[in-house]
Every structure is written in structure tokens, then in C-alpha cells.
């Protein structure tokens, strides 16, 4: 069933692509070709429905529907490359453009869970989405102007985000995840702000950003400062009780969907939860510091700050430091080491790198650890090393 679905949809896209390339030919048939486009797109929708309700496994469905998104995007690119010489050719390209947008709408509306959100989306799809929510964007601009004080940095981050989407041209490519989050963000924030008054706009704005998964670092820092202010001056016992309350609130607050503002960072609720758990451990183990490191006696390493942070992260995950609070780990690394390019680096910078390890950094760490494993094999397990060479050169 899976193979049949793939073959059928591929045939549909081949026909659509061929009609795109031959848009100016046989002009007398332009009306019938426009109808043919509608028929082909209808067949694609029917094929998707049959495939989705079959007994194909979820993993195969993800590959299948991601293939559909890539195929439609490729035809969009082909349409954009065409320059019609006749009126009928122009009408045909417009019909293709319209039907492809409707087809893509159907795909993301009904099968979003199976589409790889990292696939680049067509510019026309982004342009249409922004145009549809334009009035709501400008309404949010007006509301954000009313935000003042500590929340102003959050409002500025939102303004910058919305303006970036509005002003970006064809040279800026967005993936489906970024576009779907953008539309959800605008629609839900606009709807929520209708129930807000000017008096509580700041705190209301912040709460909505948490619910929407807007994991911008300025928002994270704002919530940190608010929670720190609530804890200020309290006894250790009351601080622990307050942190427990905050953790319970976070468990029920925040959007649990897969979409978020920045995929390089964890969800905003997860970031705050991790930070609060660290603060909780810090309260419990203030008398048991990990190590006392001399700030003026740093060990220079040939690793970057991001690589050091990556090592620290996986040391913590593998419990190399036992149950020590992560804040103590941060302090140890920032006070004890100089990186490849920085004699001194701040704890804030180290924490940022810790929570945003890139795939490039992960690959560099993997290579380093594999070299270490190979050296251990040569030094202590020569038979294992020799077997590895035999496999390599077989």
C-alpha cells in the first residue's frame, strides 16, 4: 500500500511539472488544462487520505508526507522560474499557483503531524500566510507599544520577530515549522490580547509568550528576574516551598505542542523548569560545593567554549558529577578553564552554550571521543584495535 501511494502521487507531480514547463503550448486547451490541474490536485488529496487511513506505520507515513511537501515545493520553484509569453500561459501558471497553495494548505492542515517541519517551504506559501494575518500583526504592534518597564525587552523581541517575517524577501528561506509556529503565534496572541486591559498588559503579554512557546532568551531572562524577585529575602525553607509552587505552575502552564520559536533552544517551560530544579538543588547543597577553584589559576584547553559546554552537558547527563547542582558545574568550568580563544569567559555565556549545543559542536565532540576510544583500544586492548583495522581494510 505504501509503495502504491508513492507511485501514484509521483505520477501526479510529474504531470503537474510537465504542464508547468509547457504552459505556453496548445493555448486553445488552456481551459481544459486548468481543469486537469484541479483533477490532479484532487487525486493527490484522495491518495493522501487513502494512505493516512491505511495500516502503514507512523515512521513510513512521515517519510511519505514529507516527500509530498518536498514535491509540491519543487513544483512551486518550477512555476516561479517560468515566464509566460501568452495570456493563456499566464492564466495556466496562475491556476497552478492557486491550486498548489490549496494543496499545500490541505497537507499542513490535515497531515502536519507527519510532515518534517525542517523542510524548506515555498516563498509563495510564506507570503500568503503573512498577508492573511497582516491586520493581526499590526494590532499586536499597537498592543506592544503599551508595554513598559521590565517587560519592554520582551515586547521588543516580539516586534523584531514579526517585522522580520513581514520584511523578508525571497532570499530568506523559512521551513514549515517556522511558518506554522508564526501563524499560530500571531493568531493566538492576537486573540488573547482582545481580553486584556491596558493596566495588566505587561504581565499578560509575558504569560501569553510562555503559553505560546516563545523561547526567546529575553523572555527567559524576564521570568528568571520575576522569580528571583519573588524569592528575594525569604528563608531557605520558604524559598524551597516557593520553587515547588513555581514548578507546579509550569507543569500546567505553557504550550505542550511541538512548535516553538527557536528550535536550537529547549521549550521555554523546560528551560525555566531546569533552572528552578538547579536552584532547588543549590538550596539543598549550598554547604557541599563541587570544587573550590582558584580564579587566577586556570587550565588552558584547546577546546572552544561551546565544546567545553557540550562536554559539561554530557558529564551532567551521565552523572559524572553525581547529584551536584548544575550551577556548581557551571561555576567550576568558568572558574577553572581558559578556552581555545578566551582567557576568561562568563558564566552567562557558558550557560547559553550549554543549552544550545549545535550539531557542528556535537560532531566535533563525537570525533574527539572516538579518537580517545581508539587510543584506549590501542593502549589497553590491542586485539580490539587490530580487529577494527581488519574490518576497515577488508
From TrEMBL:
Protein name per UniProt: Uncharacterized protein
Annotated source species: Mucilaginibacter oryzae
Superkingdom of origin organism: Bacteria
Amino acid at each position: 500500500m505504501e509503495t502504491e501511494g508513492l507511485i501514484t502521487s509521483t505520477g501526479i507531480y510529474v504531470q503537474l511539472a510537465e504542464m508547468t514547463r509547457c504552459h505556453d503550448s496548445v493555448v486553445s486547451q488552456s481551459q481544459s488544462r486548468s481543469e486537469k490541474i484541479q483533477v490532479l490536485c484532487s487525486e493527490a488529496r484522495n491518495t493522501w487520505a487513502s494512505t493516512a487511513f491505511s495500516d502503514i506505520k507512523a515512521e513510513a507515513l512521515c517519510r511519505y508526507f514529507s516527500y509530498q511537501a518536498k514535491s509540491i515545493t519543487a513544483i512551486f520553484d518550477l512555476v516561479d522560474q517560468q515566464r509566460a509569453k501568452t495570456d493563456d500561459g499566464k492564466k495556466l501558471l496562475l491556476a497552478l499557483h492557486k491550486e498548489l497553495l490549496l494543496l499545500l494548505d490541505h497537507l499542513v492542515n490535515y497531515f502536519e503531524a507527519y510532515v518534517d517541519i525542517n523542510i524548506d517551504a515555498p516563498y509563495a506559501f510564506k507570503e500568503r500566510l503573512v498577508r492573511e494575518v497582516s491586520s493581526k500583526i499590526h494590532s499586536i504592534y499597537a498592543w506592544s507599544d503599551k508595554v513598559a518597564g521590565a517587560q519592554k525587552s520582551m515586547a521588543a523581541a516580539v516586534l523584531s520577530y514579526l517585522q522580520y517575517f513581514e520584511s523578508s524577501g525571497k532570499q530568506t528561506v523559512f521551513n514549515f515549522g517556522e511558518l506554522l509556529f508564526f501563524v499560530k503565534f500571531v493568531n493566538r496572541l492576537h486573540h488573547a490580547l482582545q481580553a486584556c486591559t491596558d493596566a495588566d498588559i505587561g504581565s499578560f503579554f509575558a504569560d501569553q509568550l510562555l503559553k505560546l512557546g516563545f523561547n526567546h532568551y529575553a523572555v527567559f531572562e524576564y521570568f528568571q528576574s520575576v522569580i528571583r524577585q519573588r524569592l528575594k529575602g525569604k528563608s531557605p525553607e520558604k524559598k524551597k516551598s516557593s520553587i515547588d509552587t513555581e514548578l507546579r505552575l509550569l507543569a500546567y502552564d505553557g504550550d505542550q505542542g511541538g512548535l516553538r520559536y527557536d528550535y536550537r533552544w529547549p521549550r521555554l517551560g523546560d528551560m525555566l523548569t531546569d533552572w528552578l530544579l538547579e536552584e532547588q538543588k543549590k538550596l539543598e547543597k549550598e554547604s557541599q560545593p563541587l570544587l573550590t577553584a582558584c580564579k587566577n589559576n586556570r587550565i588552558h584547553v584547546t577546546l572552544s567554549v561551546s565544546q567545553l559546554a557540550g562536554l559539561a552537558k554530557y558529564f551532567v547527563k551521565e552523572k559524572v558529577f553525581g547529584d551536584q547542582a548544575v550551577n556548581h558545574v557551571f561555576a567550576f568550568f568558568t572558574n577553572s578553564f581558559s578556552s581555545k580563544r578566551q582567557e576568561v569567559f562568563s558564566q552567562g555565556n557558558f550557560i547559553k552554550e550549554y543549552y544550545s549545543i549545535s550539531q557542528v559542536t556535537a560532531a566535533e565532540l563525537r570525533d574527539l571521543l572516538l579518537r580517545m576510544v581508539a587510543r584506549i583500544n590501542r593502549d589497553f586492548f590491542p586485539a580490539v584495535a587490530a580487529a577494527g583495522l581488519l574490518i576497515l581494510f577488508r
